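Dear Dr. H.,

I hope your travels went smoothly. While you were away I took the liberty of generating a structure for the chain from your last submission, since the lab meeting agenda had it listed for discussion. I wanted you to have the full record in hand beforehand rather than looking at slides cold. The sequence, exactly as received, is reproduced here:
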Amino acid sequence: MLDDIYDDTKQHMDGSIEALKREYRSLRTGKVEPSVLDNITIDYYGTDTKLSQVATILSSDATTINISPWEKNLLKDIEQAISAGNIGVTPNNNGESIQLFFPPMTVEQRQISAKEAKAMTDGAKVSIRNIRKHSNDMIKKLLKDKDITEDESKKAHDEIQKITDSYSHKVDEMLKTKETEILKV
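The corresponding predicted structure, in token form, is as follows:
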């Protein structure tokens, strides 16, 4: 019974970590990644479709992304979607593909990106604390229903706190790594 609560807690906290990793991918670091286009969608035959599902997206060097649509008639739509997506560059359409030339990041841009990473991390910590609260509430309910003793309840709360602390530590380590990656020139 308590083991199920522990497993459920870990599973949900793992989900928070995965969500944070996905959010981190949208941040720009020194090298431009194709993931900066993850939120760009185009109208593909009446359906909002992610850019990665209608084109090949490659990062040819640290500041350039090349987008080759599978259907050439999508070039204009992709170009408009990127412009509307406000990612900080103007698309260059050569009739075959679209190139995005990102300028090197300034120190100020790196600091802003690091702040965004910290905000994302804070959101993940809030999520982890909410999961802890939910687990503790489940333990309190078991105690109230007399399914566990006071001592078992105390040990369970301590175990949930240990799990929470370990996940908070993981999130802090992820932030340190991401900040180092962002601020490295």
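Two observations you may find useful: The mean pLDDT is 91. Residues 110 and 183 are 6 Å apart (CA to CA).

With kind regards,
E. W.
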